[in-house]
Amino acid sequence: MINPEKIELAYIIDDDITTIELVKMNNDRFGFCERLVTFTDPVLANQTINEAIDKGVDVPQMILLDINMPVMDAWDFLDKMNDVLVESEVSVFILSSSINPEDMEKSKQYSSVLKYILKPLSLDKIGTMLGLIQKSGKLNQ
User: Fold this and answer.
1) Is residue 141 domain-resident?
2) What is the number of domains present in the chain?
3) Residue 67's CB: how many other CB atoms inside 10 A?
4) Residue 56 belongs to a domain with what CATH number?
5) Residue 83 belongs to a domain
6) 69 assigned to some structural domain
7) Position 12 in a domain
């Protein structure tokens, strides 16, 4: 375990099964999150988050969000969800293989996005994410 203050619930929204499995393996190894819920369909993730927020239960503390997905990409997802995510104190990290500076800059337009992280996820990157969430006051003390 890398930090005694874990994320209670995190969502991974990525259409790449390999990335999802790598994030799960990192969590098994480093213990950064109690529960991981995975989505390969961002539309379903959007609906699930809205339902969780409406009910006030199972709202994720963190979302790892891929950019390029069919039907709804990260920008469409954030256009719909940014204000709700900010209000619900959900921290979003773009987890992408894109090194396009335009993508990196665009991620800064969304106040729910704390950082743009390049794949693959590593121990250092997990530590950075937890540190940013803690610094923002969103991680339970």
Assistant:
1) no
2) 1
3) 20
4) 3.40.50.2300
5) yes
6) yes
7) yes
Range of the structural domain that residue 106 is part of: 7-135
DSSP string, the chain: ---SS-EEEEEEE-S-HHHHHHHHHHHHHH--EEEEEEES-HHHHHHHHHHHHHHTSS--SEEEE-S--SSS-HHHHHHHHHHHHHHTT-EEEEEES---HHHHHHHTT-TTEEEEEESSP-HHHHHHHHHHHHHTT-S--
Tell me the per-residue pLDDT of 58-106, one tens digit each, with 9 for 90 and over: 999 999 999 999 889 999 999 999 999 999 999 999 999 999 999 999 9
How far from chain centre, in Å, is Cα 20? Answer: 12
Specify the pTM. Answer: 0.92
Whether the pLDDT of residue 3 is over 50: the answer is no
- Give the C-alpha separation, 67 to 78, whole Å: 10
**How far is it, in rounded angstroms, from Cα 86 to Cα 25?**
28
Distances (CA, A) of 108 to 24, 38, 69, 124: 26, 24, 19, 21
